[in-house]
Write a structure and sequence with these properties.
The structure is a single chain. The chain has helices spanning 10-32, 35-59; strands at 67-73, 77-84, 87-95, 100-103, 106-107, 113-118, 128-133, 137-142, 148-150. Strands 5-4-7-8-9 form a five-stranded antiparallel sheet, with helices on one face. Strands 3-2-1-6 form a four-stranded antiparallel sheet, with helices on one face. The protein is of the alpha+beta class. The chain has two helices and nine strands; from the N terminus they run H-H-E-E-E-E-E-E-E-E-E. Strand 8 (137-142) and strand 9 (148-150) form a beta hairpin.
Length: 155
């Protein structure tokens, strides 16, 4: 009589090794393409600093000088600054990592800058759509009321 054997057969072990290979090959592609992750992270950081600019405008609504959010693009990074008059209140540098920025349909060129003015009530006056693009496009909206969020601006 045969005893009950314990363990795995050679075929079962080979199948597990093949499955591990397939899963690791699929997962590695997620780690080698960082530009999509960079675009999402850049958009979220832009929303965060735009919120800082709006909060500063609201907190200092009696001030005679407006609050601005300024973005400057170089070949490798964006520098975003919250300014009131000539005073720089907050600065954020974001690595571009192969991403591009389009503001209201116009691509921001290297060496160019763009300003968003926040009034004392936190309003900007117009909707602005910013699109950070890599493999996919990631949209943020700065509304006329100064609120910043991901996604398209509503009319």
């Amino acid at each position: 009589s045969m005893q009950n054997s314990r363990g795995f057969t050679l075929i079962e072990l080979i199948m597990v090794i093949i499955l591990i290979g397939v899963v690791s090959a699929a997962a590695s592609s997620l780690f080698t393409r960082t530009s999509s992750f960079s675009a999402v992270a850049a958009r979220d950081q832009m929303i965060a600093i735009a919120t800082v600019a709006q909060k500063r405008a609201l907190a200092d609504s009696a001030a005679t000088q407006s609050v601005f959010l300024r973005i400057i693009q170089t070949s490798g990074e964006w520098t975003l600054a919250v300014l009131q008059g000539t005073t720089e209140l907050s600065t954020l540098t974001i690595q571009r990592n192969g991403t591009t920025l389009t503001i209201d349909g116009t691509a921001l060129a290297d060496g160019a800058s763009h300003n968003v003015r926040y009034a004392g009530n936190g309003f900007t006056g117009t909707n602005q759509t910013w699109v950070v693009s890599a493999d996919q496009s990631h949209i943020l909206c700065i509304t006329s009321s100064g609120y910043s969020h991901d996604g398209n601006c509503q009319p």
